[in-house]
C-alpha cells in the first residue's frame, strides 16, 4: 500500500516527549533526545506509553508471575536460541532494553521500521550486538522476503533461524495503517517462516493503549479472524507479600496493566489460527480489513474476541 503522505507526520502533528524514569536515565531516549527525534522522524521519534507495559511483562526480574508466561530468556548454557522481530521499533527503546536480556552470538532481535527511520535505530542500537536493524514497511512483501532470506529460511539450510516471537508495542492507531500491519503479521506467521521442521508460527506479543476505540476496532475485528488472543493476567510471585493471605493464590489473577486501575493499556498474546494457514490472504487492504478471505470465503466478516474481552473486563 502506498500512502499519500509520510505516516509519521500526520496533519496537525502535536506531540511531546514521554517523560519516564527509565527513559530519562538514558541519553538516547530522554526527553531531549525524543524532542529532537520528533522533529526529524515525527511519531517514530517518541516513546509511546504501551512500550513500558511490554517491558514490564518481559522483565525476567518482575515481582509478578504472568499467564500466559512471557518468553523465557535462556541462561548462557542453554542451547535454545531466540530469534524475535519487533515491528515499528521507532526509537529502539524496547529493543535496547530487550537486548540486555539476550545472549551475544546466540540470540537475535530484529528491530524494524520504515527505511527512513532505520537511521535513528542504527544510531541508538549500534552498541547492541544482539540486535539487527532492518527495514520493514508494514505490508511490504519485499521487506519480509528479505528478512526470511537473511534468516536462511528460503534455502532451508541447517543453519537457518526460525522466528520465536513477534513484538508489537503501541502500533494500533491510524486507520490507514491497520491493514498493512495485519498483513505483515500474517506474512511473518506464514511460510517460509513455518515449515515441516518448524510448523508452529511465532506468537505475537502486543502491548496496546486504547485511545480511540471506534478507529481501532476494525483492526481487532479483522485480526481476530486470523489469530486467537488472550489478555495477560498477573499476580504476585509467592516470595512477595500477599495482602490477602485468606484468598487462594489461584483466585488472585487480574488483568495485567502496569498503570493505575483506570489505565487502558493492555498486553495480549496472540497465536495464528491453524486453519487460517490454508486461507488466501487478499491482496487489497480494504478486503483484508473487511474480513474477506477468512474462513476461506469471499464475504465480509468480523470477529468479536476483543469486544467480548472488554465486556468481561479482560480478567478471564
Quickly list its features.
316 residues, three-stranded antiparallel β-sheet, 10 helices, 28% helix
Helix and strand layout, with pairings?
Layout: H1 21-24, H2 31-41, H3 50-58, E1 64-67, E2 83-87, H4 93-99, E3 108-113, H5 118-125, E4 131-135, H6 141-150, E5 165-169, H7 175-188, E6 204-209, H8 213-226, E7 227-231, E8 233-236, E9 254-255, E10 265-272, H9 285-289, H10 305-311
Quick gist of this model?
The chain has 316 residues and is an alpha/beta fold. It contains ten helices and ten strands. The chain has helices at 21-24, 31-41, 50-58, 93-99, 118-125, 141-150, 175-188, 213-226, 285-289, 305-311; strands at residues 64-67, 83-87, 108-113, 131-135, 165-169, 204-209, 227-231, 233-236, 254-255, 265-272.
User: What is the CA-CA span between the terminal residues?
Assistant: 37 Å
The coarse overall form would be globular
Order of helices and strands: HHHEEHEHEHEHEHEEEEHH
Which stretches of 5+ consecutive residues score pLDDT under 50? none
Number of strands: 10
In what range is the share of β-strand residues?
15-25%
Largest pleated sheet = 7 strands, mixed
Q: Roughly how much helix do the residues carry, as a percent range?
A: 25-40%
Spatial strand order of the main sheet? 4-3-2-5-6-10-7
Count of helical regions: 10
Q: Nearest-angstrom radius of gyration? A: 19 Å
Give the class from helix and strand content and strand pairing. Answer: alpha/beta
Instruction: Identify the quaternary structure here.
Output: single chain
Mean pLDDT reading: 92
